């Protein structure tokens, strides 16, 4: 009985601290081996859905078992942090587009700082706590843990969906040795018969409900792939030059998305003013200035130029084809 009271107390502290640091939702799951996920991950890799993201095949055991990442781990704390913008960048038919998560400062820096503070405060309140903080930076199956912690369910586009705020959020974890009362997982699929994300994906990357062929995803092509983009995909990127939000934009649950309150996620003031020509003629000086601390730096200027050139070629071929008609 005393142990249960102590675990409840720890859970209450964990959630209070999460709210105080700006996290929208916080859930707790018992650390352990993700038995149900092992065959799914194995099949996903066997189908080569990781494309050239070779790192996805690394640390198979650690992806499935957080106790291999943090010795003596008892709890996986999952956290949600909103990034839905109050003002979207232009997304017209002729506009080059950037995924909303990359508008402002790289979320790895913003959220990692919060997680460090989180661990510090947690230790102040409950004493010695061993653990590690993760935000898309290690082999942690974040969506699966968030689902087990009751924060949502995985939609047909494989993203975590939350009934109160859709899917425009980052997921982070604290894997700690502190014992805390677990939350009940979400077991119901609230997507029902809806297939909007599957129908809308221009590259047919969603091969079955909940399974995405990463090697066909626009985000993979524009961010992860370092080679030249395949000509078979010309005309299918809908002018996305970094990432893609199509499967989220069409999701009915994102009608509940509300603007974030994180100043660091606002775009550099020059970005909303950039025209199509500005993007096509972007210089290293401009790139370095407007994307100084942005996730867009992952592509480097050469990668962004490659993506824009590919979109320009796609447009030229479309115009040429219309002329021939």
In brief, what are we looking at here?
Its EC number is 1.17.99.6. Helix content is 35%, strand content 12%.
Kindly describe this structure:
With 325 residues, the protein is α+β, with helices and mostly antiparallel strands. It has two domains: 2-176, no CATH class; 197-242 and 271-318, no CATH class. The chain is 35% helix and 12% strand. It is built from eleven helices and ten strands. A four-stranded antiparallel beta sheet has the order 1-2-7-4, with helices on both faces. A two-stranded parallel ribbon has the order 3-10. A two-stranded antiparallel sheet has the order 5-6. Strand 8 and strand 9 form a beta hairpin. The longest helix is centred in the last third of the chain and has 25 residues, at 300-324. The chain is globular. The N and C termini lie far apart (78 Å). The model has no long low-confidence stretch (mean pLDDT 94).
């Amino acid at each position: 009985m005393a142990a249960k009271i102590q675990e409840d107390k720890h859970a209450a502290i964990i959630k209070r601290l999460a709210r105080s640091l700006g996290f929208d939702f916080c859930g707790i799951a018992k650390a352990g081996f993700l038995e149900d996920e092992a065959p799914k991950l194995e099949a996903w890799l066997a189908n080569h859905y990781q494309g050239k993201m070779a790192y996805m095949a690394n640390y198979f055991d650690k992806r499935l078992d957080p106790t291999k990442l943090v010795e003596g781990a008892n709890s996986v704390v999952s956290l949600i942090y909103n990034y839905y913008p109050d003002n979207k960048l232009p997304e017209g038919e002729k506009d080059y587009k950037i995924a909303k998560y990359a508008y402002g400062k790289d979320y790895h820096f913003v959220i990692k700082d919060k997680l460090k503070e989180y661990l510090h405060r947690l230790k102040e309140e409950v004493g010695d706590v061993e653990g590690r903080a993760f935000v898309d930076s290690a082999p942690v199956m974040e969506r699966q843990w968030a689902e087990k912690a009751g924060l949502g369910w995985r939609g047909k586009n494989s993203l975590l969906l939350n009934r109160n705020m859709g899917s425009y959020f980052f997921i982070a974890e604290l894997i700690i040795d502190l014992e805390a009362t677990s939350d009940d997982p979400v077991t119901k699929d609230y997507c029902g018969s809806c297939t909007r994300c599957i129908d809308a994906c221009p590259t047919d990357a969603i091969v079955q409900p909940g399974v995405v062929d990463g090697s066909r995803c626009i985000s993979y092509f524009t961010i992860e792939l370092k080679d030249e983009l395949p000509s078979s995909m010309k005309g299918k990127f809908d002018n996305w030059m970094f990432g893609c939000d199509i499967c989220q934009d069409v999701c009915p649950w994102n009608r509940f998305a509300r603007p974030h309150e994180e100043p660091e996620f606002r775009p550099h003031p020059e970005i909303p003013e950039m025209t199509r020509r500005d993007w096509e003629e972007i210089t290293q000086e401009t790139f370095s200035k407007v994307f100084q601390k942005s996730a867009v730096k992952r592509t480097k200027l050469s990668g962004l130029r490659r993506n824009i050139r590919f979109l320009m070629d796609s447009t030229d071929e479309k115009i040429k084809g219309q002329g021939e008609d």
